[in-house]
Amino acid sequence: MDAPLPTPRNPLRAIAQPGIDAIRKLWLPFMVIQICGLLVVIAYFYVEPFKRFCEILGRVKAAGGYPFAALAMGLASGVAPEVFKFMTGVDRTINRQRLRNLTFNFLLFCVAGVPVDWFYRWLAEVFGNTNTPTVVAKKVLIDQFIYSPFVGLAIVALAYTWREHRYKVVPTLRSLGLAWFMSRVLTLLLPCWAYWFPMTTLMYSLPGSLTFVFGVCASAAAATVLIAVAERKVVRETAQV
Fold first, then answer.
1. Which residues of the chain have pLDDT under 50?
2. Is the CB of residue 74 less than 8 Å from the CB of residue 110?
3. Which pLDDT value is given to residue 4?
4. I need a labelling partner for 90 at 20 to 30 A (CA). Which of 25, 49, 56, 111 fits?
5. Domain count of the fold of the chain
6. pLDDT in the model for residue 76
């Protein structure tokens, strides 16, 4: 009797599996930061000294503008995830490759911090700074279904594709298309939604002056998943300088 043919893998499962695997590996920093995020929101509304401290941070962010946004996002999303991975034992290697990756991630999220800040400002202009359930819901839905897949995640996926092609523009552009979007962007979407739907709900429940401050802290954990998923397809670079 002939051996049974292998069952074809479900394409949706193939897209979702890397994100599921990343969440399983990195659930501890996610859970810690999500709990901290909830406590921050509660403390803001019920602990007056903490509220004043948050308002100071909001004024610092407003004074720093886009340069502050770039630097803060680079540190939170480019550096903090590596710290989390080291502390939780996911990856404790220290070598030239790790340092190059750290530099790349830092610069990537410095660049990404500018459109993030602009997007939050745009939402505030369109819907206002009120935190009514309707306003919060509108901001969350636009954030998760429009900005995240077509801007935020696309920037991250494009950057890693560019690095995979050794920073060559033409080969990178040739690799783009529907198949690229499905394998590189949609792969990241599941962990993004799993993490950011509750976190953006908390974030937009705060005053508009604190949206970016809260978001950049939450991005430290979100970027841990994004980096872990995106790097699975990146061709390893040589150890030579």
1. 1, 3, 5-8, 230, 232-241
2. yes
3. 52
4. 111
5. 1
6. 86
Distance CA 42, CA 85 (A): 28
pLDDT of residue 238: 35
pLDDT value at residue 161? 93
22 within domain boundaries: yes
Token code pair at residue 131: 């935190």
- The pLDDT tens digits of the residues spanning 147-179 come to 999 999 899 899 999 999 989 999 999 999 988
Q: How far apart are CA 126 and CA 120, in angstroms?
A: 10
Sequence-separated (6 or more) residues with CB below 8 Å from residue 79: 102, 105, 106
117 belongs to a structural domain: yes
CB 220 within 8 A of CB 77: yes
Burial of 236 (0-12, 13-18, 19+ CB in 10 A): exposed
Asked if 159 and 172 touch (Cβ cutoff 8 Å), the reply is: no
6 domain residue, yes or no: no
Name the residue range of residue 114's domain.
Answer: 14-233
What are 139's two structure tokens? 């901001």
**Cβ-contact 154, 185 below 8 angstroms:** yes
Q: Residues 221, 195: contact at Cβ < 8 Å? A: yes
Domain annotation covers residue 7: no
